[in-house]
Amino acid sequence: MPTLAHNKHARYEYTILETFEAGLALTGAEVKSIRNGGCKLDDAFVVFHKNTPVLLNAHVAPYRFAAEYTEMNAKRSRNLLLHKKEIAYLRGKMGVSGLTIIPVSLYTKGRQIKIEIALVKGKKLFEKKEVKKKRDLDRDLRRELKN
User: Fold this and answer.
1) Which residues of 90-109 are buried (b: 16+ CB within 10 A; e: fewer)?
2) How far is residue 117's CA from residue 124's CA, in Å, rounded to a whole number?
3) Residue 21 has pLDDT above 70, yes or no
4) Is 41 within 8 Å of 147 (Cβ atoms)?
5) I want to staple 30 with a disulfide (CB 3.0 to 4.6 A). Which of 26, 38, 81, 106 is the partner?
6) Which residues sit opposite 52 in a β-bridge?
7) How far apart, in whole angstroms, are the C-alpha atoms of residue 4 and residue 53?
8) Does 68 have pLDDT greater than 80?
């Protein structure tokens, strides 16, 4: 399962509560572009539109070799494919204040492209500073042990 795209800011900005695997409704040119590494998940998030989960702000670069007459919007909304129980569960959790759904990574599973989404809660500034401080202390400790 090679990872095609990864949201680097997800673990720093948010506390991950639960993760889910979802399918993604894509066009052929988008699939080829994603397999070539043309996807960014940094600002993406998930919302519900008429009881359907939709991925917004995920940037998929236009495929270079696609036909010229096909217009491809890089940041169009894409439907997520989940089971009914998962959709109902996530929709209920979205009602709780402070919780949101973001994509964590995009990967292949066999021939299919899957996306890992997470139910997250935003971190406060002091929590981010604690994580940074702990990471610096661990790095200094490893450096001392190495020498």
Assistant:
1) beeebeeeebbbbbbbbbee
2) 21
3) yes
4) no
5) 26
6) 49
7) 21
8) no
